[in-house]
Amino acid sequence: MKFAAWILLALALATGLQRAGARMPDRRPQFTGREYVRLSDWARVNQFQTRRLGDKTLQLSNRLGRVTLTVNSADAQINGVGVRLSFPVALRNGALCVSQLDLDKTFGPVFYPPANKPGFKITTICLDAGHGGKDMGEHVGGVEEKKYTLLLAKELQDQLTRAGFEIVMTRTGDSAVGLPDRTEIARRRKADLFVALHFNSSPSDRNAVRGVETYCLTPAGATSSNTQGEGDTRWLSANGNDEKNMQLAFQLQKSLVRGIGAEDRSVKRARFQVLREADMPAVLIEGGFLSHPTELKRILDPAYRRKMARAIVDGILAYKRRVKG
Asked: What is the phi-psi region of residue 171: left when phi exceeds 0, alpha when psi lies from -120 to 50, beta otherwise?
């Protein structure tokens, strides 16, 4: 592809980031059943500085931040944080295109998060320690996920309380809590945010697969990051919080990666039951891989969990500032 085409990509995406909610041109390319935007149609409003990084990768930057994209890939970076797009950046009939869904549900919420209504304050946070009781979650040797999600939740409860928040816990001991009950507890206690805490495991490549990933609800019309292109795409009532879900997930992923030095496995999308049924902005954090020997040692260390909790607190505070909560 000629470099001039890459410049059009940069300029067009820049405009998309600034005007993700603006009126689109009447004629939009459609293929594979999805609506895309010709990036050149966005090129006339605002120019980013651009830098080519290899044959198919381009970096854009201005006062709003920095974006790195690769043609035919759904993996992007926004301000240095990995973000999985709903659909790959595409080249069709000579035109560079990005899905309208990603402009509306990914770039827009990150750069222009919707503000809370005047007077609304984020005061109550529900912490959901994953698994419990007979449900061990992931387990490696004698290490059970359920124990360490609860230890992290308790540490996070202490730190958030000191930061001035009221905390709701879905469990405080080794008890089984049904998935519908977890979001019902948050709803009943009028929680403003829902944060589910988990740890991961890989069945293979145990010495290679590591890092942190943060999930928020998949927008309607897209498949989830963990379904390999298959699965439900319908609209759910929880999709009413799509923009705030993405902003919360982005701030938490950024804070975790920088705060604990973990490998960045990106902000991703899923339709986990706790995300589907939450009435409030909700995320699910996978705080590391129990299957990775080095990461396991860190997760078992109380000092590391305190550091992880501090990073989550910082991410929540950053979100609170961004949405004026």
From this structure: beta
Please report, for the domain that includes residue 154, its CATH number.
3.40.630.40
Q: In 127-178, where does DSSP find H-type helix? A: 145-162
Q: Which range marks the domain in which residue 89 is found? A: 3-105
State pLDDT tens for residues 291-306: 999 999 999 999 999 9
- Condensed to tens digits (0 to 9), the pLDDT of residues 36-71 reads 876 656 534 545 666 777 777 777 777 778 888 888
Q: How many structural domains compose the chain?
A: 2
**Using H for helix, E for strand and C for coil, what is the string for 46-110?**
CCCEEEECCCCEEEEEECCEEEEEEECCCEEEECCEEEECCCCEEEECCEEEEEHHHHHHHHHHH
Verify that 249 and 302 share a domain, yes or no.
yes
Q: pTM to 2 decimals? A: 0.91
Alpha-carbon gap, residue 16 to 46, rounded angstroms = 9
Is 196 contained in some domain? Answer: yes
